[in-house]
Design goal:
The structure holds two protein chains of two kinds. Chain A has 19 helices and 34 strands. By secondary structure, chain A is of the alpha/beta class. Chain B has three domains: 98 residues, Orthogonal Bundle (Fumarate Reductase Iron-sulfur Protein, Chain B, domain 2); 61 residues, no CATH class; 29 residues. Chain B has eleven helices and no strands.
Amino acid sequence: MSAVNASPNGTPKVGVYVCHCGINIAGVIDVTKVVEFAKTLPNVTVAQEYKFMCSDPGQELIQKDLKDGKIDRVVVASCSPLMHEPTFRRAMAACGGNPFLFQMANIREHVSWVNKEKGSATEKAKALVAAAVRRVVFHKPLQKTQVPVNSDVLIVGGGISGIHAALTMADAGRKVYLVEREPTIGGHMAKFDKTFPTLDCSACILTPKMSQVRAHPNITLWTYSEVAEIEGYVGNFKARVRRKPKYVDEGLCVGCLECIEACIFKKGKFKDEFNVGLSLRKPIYVPFPQATPLVAVIDPETCAFFRTGKCKQTCAEVCERKAIDFNQKEEIKEINVGAIILATGFKTFDASRIARYGYGKYPTVYTSLEVERLVNAAGPTGGEVLLPNGQKPKAVGIVHCVGSRDEKTNRYCSRVCCMYSLKLAHLIHERTGAEVYNFYIDMRTPGKGYEEFYDRLMKENVHFIRGRVAEVSDWAMTPEEEGKLVIRAEDTLVGAVRRIPVDMVVLSVGLEPQPDADEVRRRFNISCSTEGWFLERHPKLAPVSTFTDGIFLAGACQGPKDIPDCVAQAGAAAAEALAMIDRGHVELEPNTAFVTEEFCSGCKTCVPLCPYSAISFDTSKNKAVVNGALCKGCGTCVAACPSGALQQNLFTDEEIFNEIEGVVKYV
Amino acid sequence: MEKWQGWDKIQYEAGLDPHFGTKIASIPGGDKLLACIQCGTCSGVCPLSPYMDYTPRQIVAMIRAGFKAEVLSSYTTWLCASCYSCTVECPKEIKITDVMYAVKRMAIQEGVYPKRFPTPVLASEFFHSVEKTGRSTESWLLVRMYLKTNPFKMLKQAMLGFNLWRRGRMGVGVESIKRKDELHRLFTAMENETRAERRAGQEVRP
């Protein structure tokens, strides 16, 4: 097939536009030479250079030539198509051209940024332009397809991010399914006492939002539930949600707590997850008094009835509303949604991984989350900071960067620890009058009112020692150190090693991805960063989108974040999801695979290979069929098809082979 | 009162070696040296840092800043007992003990190490003794070390030495192995080998 015949309107007219990108490209590549070379290529009718092709005047160059009928196909030699391919396609479509008669030659990332030698860089740029010109001649005038969007939303995770996103979407009139793994929503924020830097009470600002979620007519709240499976594509997802049995009917239970009182265990015996193990609970419990929904849960792992089958079932006897149901089974709910917001949050670093800080060895070494519970008025000690011996500490050491900024644990800065350490320092100092020592590497307090809070703490005479703690031990060297824990660190600003005896050590643990983050990302078909945080589409310009259309991110599942940032991101995710839903339809890229039926032998090789289940088999015709709405254009089937019956738009054999030939023939 | 030295405290750029940091960092794995965040963990875990003139953290900072003269003549590297605690605990995985060795090697090459400080003297005397006789004779090793560092200290330790000798814990004769010529042949062969290797290595490198 000759190039001329492949063109829809007779001889193809290709316009080549070479971008300087300031000095990014022009500093290494002789752009004028590339333009002169492009003019000599077959089918090229226009070749120009411009300082910034992506700018309005740059796009107008293309549009003018298209309108004047000088060109019908476009090659832009500039940067990676990731950012600006949509820009140029839009520019072509805006003046009536077909946006898919376009090809980009990446002469920035692939040439100027990785080459120093001017001559060879210019030669490579010429080869890539030649390849793009040869390829674009074979492009077909494809059309985007539109599919309608389901206006319901699934939000995974009921922490502050999920709650805020759910309320925003629900207030906009969308139906929201909020799925939370724990028996209550609230997440980590529900465990905190105060929030930095304003020191407003965490519960006072969170619990009204929690009850709003429960009462909102547009929100379906499923706690103690997990998303088991996701199918479909943007605008039309199908989710299967597994609802674990609470053994208490949510519709009947009113949260009177009498069942808990009546339990055969007269006292709590099992570690209370909500109080991070600082107190004991019974097998039937509510996580905390403001839990939403306020419904008791039976833990089958510890309940005598489930373990032995022998129990008087006093809880069920006492319940007047007959809410307790030992025969409750796991339920699977199937829902259809248009968009999904992931707000699955984080977990705190396991401090016992750093043996020299003595967590788990010395009972007076606490993690910051445990201290959050200790200072909380609704916590196990009623807000008093008490040591296991019942006394108040006289000196407290706060160790920053535990599990952060360390090649052996986590390389990143967890971002919130400096500020929460300051907050805990203030609260401990206020409640006990103890001397508080902060051991930090660098104080990181960027944020509205944050540096001012640090300033306030310094004036409150909290001690700040710049040095990472080397060791926490009970090995006394002076009489003052007897019976205390000694923190050993270099005071780097003084240049001397110091030993500071304290009664209590607080380890400011960093933030880590949830332990099952990798499983979750596979389920939702999104990407993770190397650390395991969910990956946003672009770190600056698409911070709440993912590489999977229709799935958005909110909160700390994307990276360590404090409450204001989580709420801001949750709002942004809700807005992006709303924008997508309110358009009413989504446009699908036409880079999908298609079957040429006369070549298909019906071998079914492609069917199980498709990661999106987009290929089905038509038994009447004995041919494979591709569902264009499900196909993501990954090309797996195209590579696997033994007879060449599967081809992919924008990546047909003739397009790819001609592109290769363009490079090879030039070289 | 000591002489006021305020003016001397300014470190002029002309007095620094701008390539000192990268040179030390060129040891295997040394590139991480440039990533030091000055957290002080190394000094905190170091059992000897209280005796050092500069803590290990300060040495790293001075290496990066090009304080070559101060680093090479400091006692810190010679006090390092090679316990590797700093290397194990460093959050940036800097091989601080190896850096200490690199500094020591350079100090010896340039002849600026503290010459009357016991550690380098003891090390070199030990080496010479083994090279010559195949054994280290502790009594003479100590005598030579004290003569080269602080002879008066030897007088202070004389009684202890006498007691050790009396109980047969320390001899006065020079210990030696039997076939010394074979040992010397071994050393020569090794030396030639290393030289040849070094030459080959230089040829390979562009």
